[in-house]
């Protein structure tokens, strides 16, 4: 069984439980934070996969680190530990977020800009581009990229909308040079 299949199964089960308990959006927020913790701390993975570290200590560590998270998130991590699948935690988080977003008609997007966008600008971009990709709204992450000179570059899944000055200058250069 591949990691993707197993991760999807765990994510679907967790989604159904979160839906049943009416905590889907809270669980998404907690899993986004957990993903950051797991991707930035390789030592945590090493510790949780270390056979010399007892299962009770691992469960206690997870409970402590994720004390503010939804109880179902902590329980899911403990199940992954018990089933020796903690190495798939990030894949489970990503699959859960994808399932929850699909259910809510939301798509994750990245907006690259030369400066931090205001909440109003983010909302306008979300409402305009969500319709183009057939979603209700976009969950936008704003990243700063000074090399754009001006304008924005929007990445939604595998689609890129580039309205940056650099892109326009490159297009003009190609046009002029033939």
Describe this structure in words.
GO terms for molecular function: proton-transporting ATP synthase activity, rotational mechanism. Keywords: ATP synthesis, Cell membrane, CF(1), Hydrogen ion transport, Ion transport, Membrane, Transport. This protein has 178 residues and is of the alpha+beta class. The protein folds into two domains: 3-102, Peroxidase, domain 1; 106-177, no CATH class. It is 61% helix and 16% strand. It contains eight helices and four strands; from the N terminus they run H-H-H-H-H-H-E-H-E-E-E-H. It has helices at 3-20, 24-40, 42-49, 55-65, 71-82, 89-104, 119-132, 165-177, and strands at residues 106-113, 137-144, 151-156, 159-164. Strands 2-1-3-4 form a four-stranded mixed β-sheet. The chain is elongated. The model has no long low-confidence stretch (mean pLDDT 94).
Give the beta-strand count. 4
How many helical elements?
Answer: 8
- Which percent range fits the helix content? 55-70%
- The CATH class label of the largest domain is Mainly Alpha
CATH-derived architecture of the largest domain: Orthogonal Bundle
Q: At the fourth CATH level, what is the homologous superfamily of the largest domain?
A: N-terminal domain of the delta subunit of the F1F0-ATP synthase
What overall geometry do the principal axes of the alpha carbons give?
Answer: elongated
Radius of gyration: 20 Å
Tell me the strand order in the biggest sheet.
2-1-3-4
* Strand fraction: 15-25%
Q: Do you know the CATH topology of the largest domain?
A: Peroxidase, domain 1
Structural class: alpha+beta
User: How many discrete domains?
Assistant: 2
Subcellular location: Cell membrane; Membrane
InterPro entries: ATP_synth_OSCP/delta_N_sf, ATPase_OSCP/dsu
Keywords: ATP synthesis, Cell membrane, CF(1), Hydrogen ion transport, Ion transport, Membrane, Transport
GO molecular function: proton-transporting ATP synthase activity, rotational mechanism
């Amino acid at each position: 069984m591949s990691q993707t299949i197993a991760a999807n199964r765990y994510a679907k089960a967790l989604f159904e439980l979160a839906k049943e308990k009416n905590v889907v959006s809270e669980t998404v927020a907690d899993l986004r934070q957990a993903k950051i913790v797991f991707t930035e701390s390789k030592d945590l993975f090493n510790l949780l996969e270390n056979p010399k570290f007892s299962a009770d200590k691992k469960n206690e560590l997870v409970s402590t680190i994720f004390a503010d998270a939804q109880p179902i998130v902590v329980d899911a991590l403990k199940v992954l530990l018990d089933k020796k699948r903690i190495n798939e935690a990030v894949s489970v988080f990503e699959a859960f977020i994808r399932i929850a977003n699909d259910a809510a008609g939301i798509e994750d997007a990245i907006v690259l800009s030369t400066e931090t966008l205001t909440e109003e600008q983010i909302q306008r971009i979300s409402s305009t581009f969500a319709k183009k990709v057939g979603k209700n709204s976009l969950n936008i992450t704003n990243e700063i990229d000074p090399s754009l000179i001006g304008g924005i570059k929007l990445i939604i899944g595998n689609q890129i909308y580039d309205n940056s000055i650099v892109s326009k200058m490159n297009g003009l250069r190609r046009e002029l040079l033939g």
